[in-house]
């Protein structure tokens, strides 16, 4: 069957734009996109070749759920009681220092705690939303569990609003609580907590249960805590949010031990995987 030159030309005119679109999408996906000038750079580029600004260090990933504001930046620290000795460091990988740590019990009910701060002002600025006009209706924290830290019993946990700021874990944190950041005694270098283990309010609070087995994510509904922060913001005109502290819920009887969750530094580790880069990090979803 013979085709006329006009038909072939028309087919080329139709197929070339389609081919170009898919080629462009492929290049964009494998390149580092500059948020300043929309230029696509090589995958390993650290500086934009056009405007010379520093490129974002990590790849973006789709949202796990719809929300008005998604917060993916902040700082955290895993702390343990000074009375807890001989915690099994063999359960932590040196390749991921400071990237994950335990929440739960070891010799004492709430001896393994997690300090978590989300950069809400930065996220609202990126979303183009004025914090003064925002009325929080729902606030969900998503944490990713480490599959290797399975236990026999589910772990009831609770979250409370911190009253004092803390320093986050650094890349030198191995095991997770051995860092130049916060620990059980100090919230900042040479600055003590008023109460060992973290200064926090007993109310408002949030709670959930960490499953005994499997990986995946857990949700903590901290709507009451976020509303408390915004109410104080409206009263004083000053945004103050030192973060939250997560620990075993001592009000519920359980034979649990602990499970590990990924922190903010895990993101850097998983983004280095060129074959399957993933965005594993604490996230806060606000509506």
Give a short summary of the structure.
This protein has 287 residues and is an alpha+beta fold. It has four helices and 15 strands.
Tell how many strands the DSSP assignment holds: 15
| Largest sheet report | 5 strands, antiparallel
Order of strands side by side in the largest beta sheet? 4-6-13-8-11
For this structure, the quaternary state is single chain
How would you describe what is shown here?
- 19% of the residues lie in helices and 24% in strands.
- With 287 residues, it is of the alpha+beta class.
- The protein folds into 2 domains: 1-56, no CATH class; 69-286.
- Strand 9 (186-188) and strand 10 form a beta hairpin.
- The longest helix has 26 residues, at 5-30.
- The chain is globular and about 80 Å long.
- Mean pLDDT is 78; it is low at 20-31.
Topology:
Blueprint: H1 5-30, E1 32-33, E2 40-41, E3 69-71, E4 74-80, E5 100-104, E6 112-118, H2 120-127, E7 139-144, E8 155-161, E9 186-188, E10 191-192, E11 206-210, E12 217-221, H3 223-236, E13 244-248, E14 258-262, H4 266-271, E15 283-286
Antiparallel strand pairs: 1-2, 3-15, 4-6, 5-14, 6-13, 7-12, 7-15, 8-11, 8-13, 9-10
Task: Quickly list its features.
287 residues; alpha+beta; 5-stranded antiparallel sheet; globular
């Amino acid at each position: 069957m013979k085709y006329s030159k006009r038909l072939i030309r028309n087919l080329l005119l139709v197929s070339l734009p389609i081919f170009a679109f898919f080629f462009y999408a492929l290049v964009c996906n494998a390149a580092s996109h500059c948020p300043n000038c929309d230029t696509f750079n090589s995958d390993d580029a650290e500086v934009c070749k056009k405007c010379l600004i520093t490129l974002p260090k990590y790849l973006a990933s789709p949202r796990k759920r719809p929300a008005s504001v998604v917060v993916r930046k902040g700082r955290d620290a895993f702390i343990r009681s000074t009375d807890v000795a001989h915690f099994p460091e063999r359960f932590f990988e040196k390749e991921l220092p400071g990237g994950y740590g335990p929440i739960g019990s070891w010799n004492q009910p709430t001896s393994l705690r997690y300090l978590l701060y989300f950069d809400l002002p930065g996220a609202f600025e990126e979303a183009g939303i004025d914090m003064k006009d925002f009325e929080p209706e729902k606030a969900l924290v998503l944490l990713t569990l480490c599959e290797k830290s399975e236990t026999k019993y589910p772990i009831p946990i609770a979250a409370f609003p911190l009253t004092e700021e803390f320093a986050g874990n650094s890349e030198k944190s191995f095991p997770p609580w051995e860092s130049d950041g916060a620990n059980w005694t100090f919230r900042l270098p040479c600055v003590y907590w008023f109460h060992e283990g973290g200064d926090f309010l007993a109310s408002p609070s949030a709670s959930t249960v960490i499953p005994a087995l499997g990986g995946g994510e857990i949700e903590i509904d901290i709507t009451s805590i976020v509303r408390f922060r915004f109410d104080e913001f409206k009263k004083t005109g000053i945004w103050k949010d030192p973060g939250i502290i997560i620990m075993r819920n001592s009000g519920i009887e359980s034979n649990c031990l602990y499970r590990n969750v990924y922190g903010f530094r895990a993101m850097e580790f998983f983004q280095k995987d060129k074959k399957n880069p993933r965005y594993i990090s604490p996230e806060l979803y606000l509506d």
